Amino acid sequence: MSLSQKLADLGIDLPPVATPAGAYVPAKVHGDLVYTAGQLPLVAGALPATGKVSDGHGKVVPASDAREYARLCALNAIAAAANAVGDVDRLTGVLKVTGFVASVPDFTAQPSVINGASELLGELFGDAGAHARSAVGVPVLPLDSPVEVEVVFTLD
């Protein structure tokens, strides 16, 4: 089944590609790979939440919400990669995911947050969605985003 059909079956519309916030492109093709820039969980050009991820004290983003935002980052990465190659169905798999979680110092569940992105990619790409991954805690991300995800896709 094609990626476009899987997206349709799940009721997922790819978002528009986010305008870069600096001097870079959203995705770059090299050989049979597409590298995305770090993608924020932008929805209609805005972040759904800002702040640090935590298990729940102070002004923070709950880890369960951040997991959903990581999923949005993955969708934005698919959109950026599809735009770079002209057709979402040219994307055949996922090679590597790097996820960043802006979190409070004692938060250690970054991998479970980035699972939001990894699980969506696995659902969409099946076995070809199995990927190497890093999930890194950082003190702050652009625009005070709670998460950022970059993906390396394989091409047909």
Structure description:
The relative contact order is 0.25. The protein is α/β, with parallel strands linked by helices and 156 residues long. The model has no long low-confidence stretch (mean pLDDT 95). Strand 1 (27-30) and strand 2 form a beta hairpin. The chain is built from 3 helices and 7 strands. Helix 2 (63-85) packs across helix 3 (110-125). The longest helix is centred in the middle third of the chain and has 23 residues, at 63-85.
Quick description:
This protein has 156 residues and is α/β, with parallel strands linked by helices. It is built from three helices and seven strands; from the N terminus they run H-E-E-E-E-H-E-H-E-E.
Kindly state the number of beta strands: 7
Helix/strand-derived class?
A: alpha/beta
Widest beta sheet: strand line-up: 1-2-7-5-6
Show unreliable segments.
none
Query: What would CATH call the class?
Result: Alpha Beta
The name of the CATH architecture is 2-Layer Sandwich
Superfamily (CATH H level) name: RutC-like
CATH topology: 60s Ribosomal Protein L30, Chain: A
Helix content: 25-40%
Element order, helices and strands?
A: HEEEEHEHEE
Distance between the termini: 14 Å
Shape descriptor reads globular
Domain Endoribonuclease L-PSP/chorismate mutase-like: 6-149
Protein name: LysR family transcriptional regulator
Pfam families: YjgF_endoribonc (PF14588)
InterPro entries: Endoribo_LPSP/chorism_mut-like, RutC-like_sf
